[in-house]
Design brief:
The protein contains two helices and three strands. The chain is of the alpha+beta class. It has a three-stranded antiparallel sheet with strand order 1-2-3, with no helix packed on it.
Length: 61
């Protein structure tokens, strides 16, 4: 992590909010929690696609 910060000025790791072991590890490294939204768009099957975000699953047409 120090090498990334030295080279780029900052570092970030992504983890699911329910992954307590990884969150604890990152906090021990001195990282702070910063929540943000992210979405995953599944491969299209027919007319619609499934979209999920930190606000829960949704279905988009």
């Amino acid at each position: 992590m120090d090498a990334l910060v030295n080279q780029h000025g900052r570092a970030a790791l992504m983890v699911l909010t329910g992954n307590a072991p990884d969150i604890a590890t990152y906090e021990r490294l001195g990282m702070a929690k910063c929540l943000f939204g992210a979405a995953h768009i599944a491969a299209r099957l027919g007319q619609g696609s499934t979209v999920a975000s930190r606000h829960g699953p949704a279905h988009a047409e």
